[in-house]
Fold Ribbon-helix-helix domain-containing protein.
Amino acid sequence: MEMARWNVAVSTTTDQDLRRFLVNQGRGRKGELSRFIEEAVQAHILELTAKQAKAANIKFDETELASMVDEALDWARQS
C-alpha cells in the first residue's frame, strides 16, 4: 500500500497520553503511532458518514427503509 506523509501538531499532553496508552496496550513498537492514527481517522470517517446517512434518511420510516434495502440487495444479487 502506498503511504502518504502527514505533518500534524498536537498538544504535548495529547502526545504523551497517546504514547503512554499505546505502550500500556503493548503497542509501543515503531509504526504503532501511525497505525493508531490511521485506525482513528477511519473510525471517525465511518462515524460521520453514518451520522450523515441517518440524517438523510430521517424522513423515512422503518418499513420504507427496509423496502429500499431489500430492493438494493435484489439489484446487487442480479448484477
In short: The helical segments are 12-24, 32-56, 62-78.
